[in-house]
Amino acid sequence: MDKVVRLVSERGVVLFSKSTCCLCYAVKILFQELGVTPTVHEIDQDPEGRELERALMRLGCKAPVPAVFIGGKLVGSTNEVMSLHLSGGLIPLLKPYQALC
């Protein structure tokens, strides 16, 4: 769990993903379209991937991937991110991390 806490504290927007996950891809594309480049950790390519999955579940993730953290806080998985976006709450959270155009 320490590794997850450290990783999410190092960057503003962090996404734990699996390279073959279509829902993870959807979240990546959403962030890209909103002008945000998250730090992506592909846990299926990490030797400690299983431990990361367990740590994410202990931190409250309903599913291990995608797991989105903004400003060091767990936002959730695809459902939470999309719901937040549709309700207008995602962009204000991402504003400090958007690329300058």
Automatic annotation (TrEMBL):
Superkingdom to which the source organism belongs: Eukaryota
PANTHER family named among the record's database cross-references: GLUTAREDOXIN (PTHR10168)
Similarity section: Belongs to the glutaredoxin family. CC-type subfamily.
Limits of the Glutaredoxin domain: 13-75
InterPro entries linked: GlrX-like_pln_2, Glutaredoxin, Glutaredoxin_subgr, Thioredoxin-like_sf
Organism: Hibiscus sabdariffa (roselle)
Database matches in Pfam families: Glutaredoxin
UniProt KW keywords: Cytoplasm, Redox-active center
Subcellular location: Cytoplasm
Name this polypeptide is given: Glutaredoxin domain-containing protein
